[in-house]
């Protein structure tokens, strides 16, 4: 296990290095710079040049990249040009909680709804419940989450007037603000929930045909015991495989959802940083998302032995 973890950590470090390099090159491939985007004609060319020289933006790109890597090794994410030179780490810390809460709520919704729906559809195969589940999950899986978000705002904010259009304002400030994240969490997780439900149904149908399930039923065990104790555990093996990609989808999708609902999170800050060409914030948010996705995939891999002990022997 230790050797496996060491290999994963090394691979993650190489991946982060490549992500930094690609992000750095893409940022500097866009014409203009952070002060050009901010000044909008208010700063002279000489003033912009002095600012770029002060922050080292006039240095050759290899020198800038090496300096960036040196700072990252020391845990320094750099400065935000759009926020008057404030540290990127402190800005991300202020905006991390809303994004974290949104991700937890959405991920909980995906698991708590998707897996039970898939299990019930498999147990009641061919019933009206199964057909309704298949139709609904197919539609939700085909519709992008931002379309679902706009439809929710159209129905609940514009049509019914139950919520404000920018209902995400203040989300994460207190426990009382958590209900404001219900609609964004559902909109973000609905497509992934539908996919998870379909996968759970298919996996359960396959497991329910196995000989050991027939043996358990022949012993006279209750159907609930057969499904929960004997079938569900083995059916969850491919489901757990999908949890890593689902988490990655929720992380990247939160960028758009936060902007639509007005949540004060990291995703909205990333949109603003791209618009303002804020190099420090772009790199910081990109690395934050990359680390979160790789950590989620590692956790999923470590969960395999708990469900399927054969996975531990293959490592």
Could you list some keywords that capture this structure?
mainly alpha, MetI-like fold, 2 domains, 13 helices
Report what the structure shows.
By secondary structure, this protein is mostly helical. It folds into two domains: 76 residues, no CATH class; 214 residues, MetI-like fold (Orthogonal Bundle). The protein is built from 13 helices and two strands. A hairpin with a 5-residue loop joins β1 and β2.
- Give start-end ranges of low-pLDDT stretches: none
Give helix and strand order, one letter per element, not per position.
HHHHEEHHHHHHHHH
* Name of the level-1 CATH class of the largest domain: Mainly Alpha
Helicity level: over 70%
How are the elements arranged and paired?
Layout: H1 2-29, H2 34-39, H3 45-54, H4 61-73, E1 79-80, E2 86-87, H5 88-123, H6 128-142, H7 145-159, H8 182-207, H9 211-218, H10 223-261, H11 266-276, H12 279-307, H13 310-313
Antiparallel strand pairs: 1-2
Helix pairs in contact: 1-12, 5-6, 5-8, 5-10, 6-8, 7-8, 7-10, 8-10, 9-10, 10-11, 10-12, 11-12
State the gist of this model:
By secondary structure, the protein is mainly α. The chain contains 13 helices and 2 strands; from the N terminus they run H-H-H-H-E-E-H-H-H-H-H-H-H-H-H.
